[in-house]
Amino acid sequence: MLNIGLLGCGRIGQVHAASLQHIDGAHAAAVADAFPAAAEALAAKTGAKVMTSDAIIADPSIQAVVIGTPTDTHFDLIEASARAGKAIFCEKPVDMSADRIRTLIEIVEVAGVPFLTGFNRRFDPGFATMQARIAAGDIGDVELVTILSRDPSPPPVSYIKSSGGLFRDMMIHDFDMARFLLGEEVVRVFATGSALIDPAIGAAGDVDTAVAVLTTASGRICQISNSRRATYGYDQRAEVHGSLGLLRANNVTENNVEFASGAGFRTAPAQHFFLERYAGAYRAEMLHFIGCLSSGKTPSPGIRDGLAAQRIADAAAQSLETGLAVDLD
Amino acid sequence: MLNIGLLGCGRIGQVHAASLQHIDGAHAAAVADAFPAAAEALAAKTGAKVMTSDAIIADPSIQAVVIGTPTDTHFDLIEASARAGKAIFCEKPVDMSADRIRTLIEIVEVAGVPFLTGFNRRFDPGFATMQARIAAGDIGDVELVTILSRDPSPPPVSYIKSSGGLFRDMMIHDFDMARFLLGEEVVRVFATGSALIDPAIGAAGDVDTAVAVLTTASGRICQISNSRRATYGYDQRAEVHGSLGLLRANNVTENNVEFASGAGFRTAPAQHFFLERYAGAYRAEMLHFIGCLSSGKTPSPGIRDGLAAQRIADAAAQSLETGLAVDLD
Amino acid sequence: MLNIGLLGCGRIGQVHAASLQHIDGAHAAAVADAFPAAAEALAAKTGAKVMTSDAIIADPSIQAVVIGTPTDTHFDLIEASARAGKAIFCEKPVDMSADRIRTLIEIVEVAGVPFLTGFNRRFDPGFATMQARIAAGDIGDVELVTILSRDPSPPPVSYIKSSGGLFRDMMIHDFDMARFLLGEEVVRVFATGSALIDPAIGAAGDVDTAVAVLTTASGRICQISNSRRATYGYDQRAEVHGSLGLLRANNVTENNVEFASGAGFRTAPAQHFFLERYAGAYRAEMLHFIGCLSSGKTPSPGIRDGLAAQRIADAAAQSLETGLAVDLD
Amino acid sequence: MLNIGLLGCGRIGQVHAASLQHIDGAHAAAVADAFPAAAEALAAKTGAKVMTSDAIIADPSIQAVVIGTPTDTHFDLIEASARAGKAIFCEKPVDMSADRIRTLIEIVEVAGVPFLTGFNRRFDPGFATMQARIAAGDIGDVELVTILSRDPSPPPVSYIKSSGGLFRDMMIHDFDMARFLLGEEVVRVFATGSALIDPAIGAAGDVDTAVAVLTTASGRICQISNSRRATYGYDQRAEVHGSLGLLRANNVTENNVEFASGAGFRTAPAQHFFLERYAGAYRAEMLHFIGCLSSGKTPSPGIRDGLAAQRIADAAAQSLETGLAVDLD
C-alpha cells in the first residue's frame, strides 16, 4: 500500500483525494494545508492524518507527495520533497519562472525521484485517445494541429494581475497539448491578442482573446485560439490534420438529450465547470502516477514538459509585446 | 432523343419537367392538363407542345408518358397508354383500389410496356444508399426496421375525407419503404392510431397519429410511426438493424450552420417542404426511368410494388378498425 | 448519519456501495451475502460490518436496506424488512409474479415504509432530463413515444431459460420507461417477436428480437423495439414526439473523438457495459433514495411501479403467444 | 428578359449557364469561347447564339456579361465590357496584380456599371446564413473567426507554378470569407506555411500547408488554415466566436446515412467536388446578380472586394517570405 501525502487541501487537493479512493494499492495517508480546517475536513473524508507539510515530507513511511498548493510555494516544496526522496506529483505551473524550473529540474534529476507535472488534459479520454491514435499511425504524418480553448467566463481582474497573463495562465495548457499532439518540439512562436471582453483586463496589461501559431523544425504547424469567455460552456476542442486523415476531439455536453422544435435541433451546452469536464482526466492522471510508482515506469508529462510549456508561454508573451515571431533555441 | 409526354402540369408535373431538362437524351415533347393555363405555362418553360392527353397517348412519336394527374384519372390513362404501347411513369398511388390495380397489372403486363410507380423516396440519396449497403451485405441479415415519418402539418380535413385515410395516403410511402428495406414480403400487419392533433380529423373517421408493425415470413420486423404534424420540419428517418450493424438515414436540415449559446448547440430545422426534401430523389427517379427506357432494363418499383403497398395499407386500415393483426395471404 | 444495510454484495451491490461513499449523511453500515468472501471484500472497501441478512434486518440501528440479491429471494427479504420497519431499495424486478408483488404491496403499505424500485434508467441524466422537460411542458402534449433498446450481446441460453423471457427480463425496463415518458397508464399492449440471433433462444421458447405497441386511454402511443445484440454497443435511445416538439435521448459514446478519412467521419461506438453506461444513473438513484429518507419524501418509482411494469410484461408475453392485442383492466 | 453573354464556356461557364436556366427574367443569349466546340456545345444546351467575345461586348441587345475565361484575359474583357456599359460578373481573381485591379476599379467606377466579383462562397447557404445571423446580432460582437479550408487533393505542380501560390490561389477565398465574417477591415497579416504534402510543391517555391492570422483595428482576430489535401473530402468550415455565442458552418456530407458497427458510428465523407459542394452557392450567386440588375441594387461582393482580398493575399505571401507580420495601410 503506497502512502501518499497531499500538500494542499483546496479544490484540486480534494479532487486528487477522491481519485485515490478509487485506486487499489494507494491511499491518502496524510494531508496538510495552511488552513487547518481544510485539512481536517479532508482528513475526515479520507481517514488521512493531518500533518504539516514539513512533517509529511520528513515522514519516511510516505512515498509520494501531491502538491496542490499556491504556485509560489511549489519551488520550496519540490526542492524539499526531492531531497527527501519523495515521488512528486505537482500541479501546473511548476513555477512562473523558466529559470527556476531549470533549477528544479537539476534538483529533481539529481535526486532521481519520479515527477509528474499536472497537465491533466493529456489524460482526458478524448485527447488521450486522439494522441494514442496519432501514435498508432491512424492519420499518418501530423501536419496541422488546431486547438480551440475557451473558458466559460473570465476570472476576476485581481486574479489576472497575479496570473502571469493569459499565455502563462490559460494558454499554457494548450501549449502542452500542442507538444503532445504535434509529436515534435516547437521552434517558433507567433502570438497576438486583444482585450475584447473586459477593458479592465486590458488596463491590467493582459489580453482576454488571443491566438498563437507554433511551428516545428519539420514544418508542422499548430494554431491555438483562446477566449476567456464562452456563453455555451467550457469549450475544449482540438483537431489534428494528418496525411491520412483527421482526428477531432469534440466538446462534452451536459447530457445527451436533443430538443427539436421550429427553431431547429438543440443539444445541451458544453459542460461548464472544469472539474466536471475533466473529472475522467483527473482520475486517469492519478491512476497513471500511482501506476508508475508501482511499476517503476517514468511518469509523463515530467518536469521538463513543465519547462517546455513555460518557455512557449514566455515566447508567446514576448511575441504579443513585440509583434514579432520568436524563435526558441 | 426520347419524346416524353407529361400528363398533368401541376406541382409534380413541373418537378418532372425540370428533371427532364437535366437529362441528356430525353425531353418533354408534349404537355397536357385539364387547366389549359397550366399546360401553357409549362410549355413556355420547356419548349414542349400543348396537347390533350388523348392526343399525346395517340401520338406515335411519343415513347413515354409521365402521369401526374389526380388519382381517380390514373386508371383510364394507364389503360390507354399501355394499349398504345407507351412506357409509363405513374405517380403513387396507382389507384385507391387494390382490385383495380390488379386489373391494371394484367393490362400493363399484356401490353409489355415499362412501368415505374412513383415511390420517389426509394431514390432519395439517403434511403437509396442505405438499401444499396444492405444489399451489399454491410449489416448482414436484416432484423429490425424502424421508419419514422412525420409531416410538417396536417392537410385540410376536406382533403383527408377523400384521401383514403392516413394509411393509404401517408403511410403508404412507408409501407413501400418497409418492403424496400426489409428485402422480404410482409405477411402480417398490426396497426393502431389516434386523432390527437385535430379532433376534426377524428370526426372525419381518420387518425393523425399512427403506428404499424409489419412482420415477414422469416420473422423480420418493421415498426412505422406517422404523425401528421412535426414542429421541426418534415421528419423523414429510417434505420435498419442487422446482424452486423445498423444503418440509419437521418434528417436533412435546412443548412449546415450550428449556433452555440447558453441554451446549447442548435442546428437548423429539417427541411419543411417535400419538394425541397426530395428534390434529389425526384431527379434520380426520372434519371432511372429514362435510363431504363434507353437500356431496356425494367424500371423499379413497378406496378406490382404499387399493389403490394396498397394491400399493406388496406390491411393496416382493417387492423385499426378491428384491433386485430391482419394476415396477408 | 443513516446506517444502510446492503443485502447482496455482487456486481450491483458493489455499485450501490460505491454510490454511498459519495453521499454525505449516509454510509454502508453492514453488508451481507450468501458468499462470505463477497461480503468480506466489500466490507474491507467500505468499513461496513459483515452480518447476516437476518441480523441486518433485525438491527434497530440500521434504517434502510438495499436489496441486490437474486430475484427469488426478494419476496422474503422485502416482507421481513417491511415488517421490521426498514426503508427498502429493491432491485428490479421486485418479483417474477404480479400476484406476489400485489401481496408485497399490501405488506409494504401496511408497514408504511419507504420503497424504491430499482428502475435505474429513470435516473439517467438523459432520460431524467427528457422527462423533466416533458413535465415542464416543453413539447406540449405527448403523442408518440419511441424506445429503442439493444443489448451488446445475448446472455447464455441457460440464463434465458430462467429469466422469464425477453419481455420480463429485458423489455421490462422499457415498459417502465414508457410509463415514465407517456405520463399516462398503458391500457393496451400488442407485441411480437422472433428468434433471429440465436436459434437456441427460440428453442428455449423465447425471442431475441421483439417489438411492442402500447396505447393509453387518451390515445397516446408508444413503440418499443428490443434486440439482444448490437454490434455497436449498448444501444439505449428514446424519443418523445409532442404537440410542440420532439425530445430525443441519444446514445452515449465511449469518447468524444471523431476520425475523418476517405470512409467518412467516424465517432466511437456506444458504451458497451451497462454499469458504465448507467454509472451516473446509479449514483443519482441512490442520492434520490437517501434524499427521500432524509426529507421524508416518497421515493419514486415505488413498488406499484414495479407491479405496473410487470403487468405490461405479462401482457406482452401473452400477446406474443396469442397474436392478439391484450387489454389491461 | 435580360440577355446575358457568357464569356468562357468551360466548367464554370457551364455552371453559370445552368443557373440561368432556373432564373425567370434572364437567359443566356450568347456564348463565346476560344475553343469553338465548347461554345457550340453550350449553345446547344441553352439555345444561346455562338459569338465572339468582341461581338458579345459590342452587341447593344446584351445587358450583361459573365466572365469565366482564364485570369490573364480578365483585364481586357472587363475594360472593354465596362466601356461598353455592360454589367459584369467576373470570376475571381479579378487579376493577379493589385495595381491592375486598381486600374480596373477606376474604369468600372467611371463607367458606372454593376460589377460582381465571383466569390461564390459568400452565397453558400451555410456561410450566408452565418453572416446574416452575425449581422442580425445573434452572437453580439465578433471576436474570433476560425476558417478551416482543405482541398481534396493538390493540383498538378505545373498549375501551382502559374497560380500565384497558395495564398493567391486558394487562401484568397478564405481572405474574402474572413472580411465577410469579421465585418471590419483587416489591418495586419501574419502567415506561415510548409510543403508537407509534396516536395515538388516546395521545389516550385510554394507551400501546401499554411496558416494566417488576420487582425482588425478594433482587435478582432481571424485564424485561417489551409491544406492542399484532405482524405475525407473538400473540407470547408468556418466558425465565429462572439460576445453572445458561436456560429459554426459544418461540412456538407455526401449523404445523410450513418453506419454503426463495432468500429463506431460512421457518416459519409464530405462532398469532394467543389462544383457539387457549392452548387447551391453558384445558383444563389447568379440569382443575386440578376436580381441586382432587375432591382438596381449594387451587387456585392464588388470589384473593391476583389482588390481587398488580393491585397491580403499579397501581404500573406510577403509574411511567409520575411517571417514578419505585414501591416496593410
Descriptive overview:
4 copies of one chain form a homotetramer. Chain A has 329 residues and is α/β, with parallel strands linked by helices. Chain A folds into 2 domains: 2-113, Rossmann fold; 122-281 and 308-327, Dihydrodipicolinate Reductase, domain 2, CATH 3.30.360. Chain A contains 13 helices and 15 strands. Chain A has helices spanning 11-21, 36-46, 53-58, 74-83, 98-111, 125-135, 157-162, 166-169, 171-182, 199-203, 274-277, 279-295, 303-322; strands at residues 2-7, 26-32, 49-50, 64-67, 87-91, 115-118, 142-150, 186-194, 209-216, 221-227, 235-242, 246-249, 257-261, 264-267, 326-327. The first copy, chain A, has a 7-stranded mixed beta sheet. Chain A has a 6-stranded parallel beta sheet with strand order 3-2-1-4-5-6, with helices on both faces. In chain A, strands 13-14 form a two-stranded antiparallel ribbon. In chain A, helix 4 (74-83) runs parallel beside helix 5 (98-111). The mean pLDDT of chain A is 96. Chains in contact: A-B, A-C, A-D, B-C, B-D, C-D. The interface between B and C is large, with 39 and 39 residues. Strand 13 of chain A pairs antiparallel with strand 12 of chain C, so a sheet runs across the interface.
